[in-house]
Amino acid sequence: MGEPKTLSELKSLGPKSQEMLARAGITTVAQLRALGSVAAFVRAKQVNRGVSLNLLWGLESALSGLPWQEVARVHRTSLLLALEDQEKRARPQRP
């Protein structure tokens, strides 16, 4: 089949996930790959209500090709640490 060209071709991202990404300005596989799963999740969370960690697992699954269940089980800790780091950097620093 080859490399997916559109978000709808990615197995782990359903219509709701695609809508959340679109609201965050992420509409292509290239944009998603450039950002990575954690940064894409942070962007989606900023503009969508009710975003859960399931989206992060789905994003990482879509990029890695691993089943989302495996991502949630095996890569959970590293993804959560990366998410925490990304969110810390995004917060304004206090003097």
Condensed summary:
With 95 residues, this protein is mainly alpha-helical.
Description:
It is built from 6 helices and no strands. Helix 1 packs across helix 3 and helix 4 packs across helix 5. It has a single domain, classed as 5' to 3' exonuclease, C-terminal subdomain (DNA polymerase, domain 1, Orthogonal Bundle), CATH 1.10.150.20. The chain is globular and about 50 Å long. With 95 residues, the chain is mostly helical. Helix content is 64%, strand content 0%.
In one word, what is the shape?
A: globular
Unreliable residue runs: none
Q: Give the N-terminus to C-terminus distance in angstroms.
A: 53 Å
Q: Helix amount, in percent?
A: 55-70%
Overall mean confidence score, pLDDT: 91
Task: Write the CATH architecture name.
Answer: Orthogonal Bundle
CATH topology: DNA polymerase, domain 1
Query: Topology as H/E string?
Result: HHHHHH
SSE order and pairing:
Layout: H1 15-23, H2 29-35, H3 37-47, H4 53-64, H5 68-74, H6 76-90
Helix pairs in contact: 1-3, 3-4, 3-6, 4-5
Using brief descriptors, characterize the structure shown.
DNA polymerase, domain 1, single chain, 6 helices, globular, 95 residues, mainly alpha
